Amino acid sequence: MQPFARLRYLNWERLDKTGSGDHLRGDIMRSILITTLFMATQATAAWSDYEEVRELSLGTGGIETLTIDNGAGSVDITGVSGTDEISVTATVLVPGKNEDKARRKIESSLVLTLEQVRETAVLKAYFKNGGGLFSFGDSPSVRLEVRMPEQLRLEIDDGSGSIDITGVRGSIVVDDGSGSLTMTDVGGDVEIDDGSGSISVQGVGGDISINDGSGGIRVRDVAGSVIVDDGSGSIDVSDVEKDLIIVDDGSGGLDFSNISGRVENNS
After folding, report:
1. What letter does residue 46 receive in the DSSP assignment?
2. Global pTM?
């Protein structure tokens, strides 16, 4: 190796004597820079997020309830007047994988179905085993946009991700692991069992019951009663036609106003 190194040095020396060494060095450095940038670009492209959109629909003849089983990803649900079908736009996201690897992951692990089981429409959207070998924060997810007949009953079992529900007139039951929960203009009774994340509810046609682990709670304009059992986080309730019952307010402030019925604080 030493003679080769010496020869390489002497070659540079000769080039310097002819005046072409500087030009050659410049050309080589530019080539190295271009090659490095190309490799970085290729690496970025190879490890970018993969996204795929799928559409599902189901007629609602004979259906009374929509049940959603969602693993990770946001869920946006809109109750629609005059429709007789459930339509779903599912955006499947696989982070940090090229197209081939992402497609293989989707084919082997994705569960995405919408089917009728007696009087219930069942929507499933999750990756088996929580995404397998994916590390925390880089797991695949499914973002759901759902349009449903407004009169149907709604049941949601959600692992993580935000939930937004608007315009559903039937009763609503939500079992949520983590992520914010927002409801606006819902017509029936509401039951929420939430692990963590903020809860905001505006406009409820019936009673609402909230069992919350942590996160702030804000409730407005309820035609029935409000029952809250909270681990930690602030509670803010106003404009309730019937009773406000606080089973436990845990830690955090409690504010209420315009309660037409009785106020009972058992904490």
Report:
1. H
2. 0.79
Print burial letters for 186-201: b (CB count within 10 Å at least 16), e (below 16): bbbbbbbbbbbbbbbb
pLDDT digits 0-9 by tens, 54-99: 999 999 999 999 999 999 899 999 999 999 999 999 999 999 878 8
Q: Which residues contact 65 (CB under 8 A, 6 or more apart)?
A: 119, 120, 121, 152, 153, 154, 155, 170
Q: For the chain, give the longest Cα–Cα distance.
A: 99
174: nearest Cα among 204, 141, 132, 142 = 204
- CA angle, corner 180, sides to 115 and 127, nearest 5? 40
> What span, in angstroms and rounded, lies between the C-alpha atoms of 103 and 54?
13
CB 253 within 8 A of CB 237: no
> Do residues 145 and 163 make contact, with C-beta atoms less than 8 angstroms apart?
no
In which element (H, E) is residue 231 found?
A: strand 226-232
How are beta strands 141-149 and 85-94 bridged, if at all?
antiparallel
Q: Which token pair is 11? A: 């070659």
Q: Please enumerate in sequence order all residues whose Cβ is within 8 A of that of 17, keeping only pairs 6 or more positions apart, or say none.
A: none
Q: What are the residue ranges spanned by the domains of the chain?
A: 2-46, 50-265
Alpha carbon distance 73, 163 (integer Å): 9
CATH topology of domain 50-265: Pectate Lyase C-like (2.160.20)
Low-confidence ranges of the chain (pLDDT < 50): 1-14, 32, 35-46, 131-136
- Please classify residue 15 by burial: count the beta carbons closer than 10 Å to its beta carbon, then call 0-12 exposed, 13-18 middle and 19+ buried: middle
